[in-house]
Amino acid sequence: MKSFTVNPFKVAFLFVMALWLCGCKSVDHTAHDGPIPKGMSIVFGGILAAEPTKSNMKTEGASRSVNVINIKSSNYVFWQFIHGRCEYFYWYLPPGQYAILNYGEGRYDLATRSSETYEQRIGAMFSVDSDQTVIYMGTLDLASSAFNVTDDFDAAAQAFHKKFPSINIKPVKRLLQFEEKR
User: Fold this and answer.
1) For the chain, where are the E strands, in sequence order?
2) Which of 17, 38, 152, 176 is the most buried (most CB within 10 A)?
3) What is the overall mean pLDDT for the chain?
4) pTM of the model
5) How far apart are CA 119 and CA 153, in angstroms?
6) Per residue in 51-97, pLDDT tens?
7) How far apart are CA 38 and CA 17, in angstroms?
8) 160 Rama class: left (phi>0) / alpha (psi -120 to 50) / beta
9) Is the CB of residue 107 less than 8 Å from the CB of residue 61?
10) What values do phi and psi take at 32, rounded to 5?
């Protein structure tokens, strides 16, 4: 019987291809300094994440992320990976209704070829009403037992203009709204 090793780069490539094939038009929605592309706006804020949940696995690979969907089509738009305790995001998005749907953690142990996943529904909704705007959504706090959004608009707007000095558009505050519990 032939043995094989798992190449993490091939796994990452296959994951990105799967996202693209499942309807994600672009894996990179990250905004850049310069003119906002036609038909797009910039949505920005932060995600404060808890420390990863404890596991008995000797983890070789781990990831934490939130996924964003288009509410009208129910299609996934992209995943935002969370690399540290607080991840700031600056996304290009066209006008539409969106939701940060779920928070998830995944681990893969190369030695045993086993995996664990954890997912929790967030349901934080937001909208982009027109193109060529800059929208501040707040900081989504996933570290507390009840998800909430904090408003640091003034500091966030200053940080935005420092990161994007050539964009002379005043940000609009439109904080995330949570879906009604059923």
Assistant:
1) 41-48, 61-70, 76-81, 86-93, 96-109, 114-128, 134-141, 148-150, 172-173, 177-178
2) 176
3) 79
4) 0.75
5) 29
6) 665 555 555 566 778 889 999 998 989 878 887 777 889 999 999 99
7) 26
8) alpha
9) yes
10) -130, 155
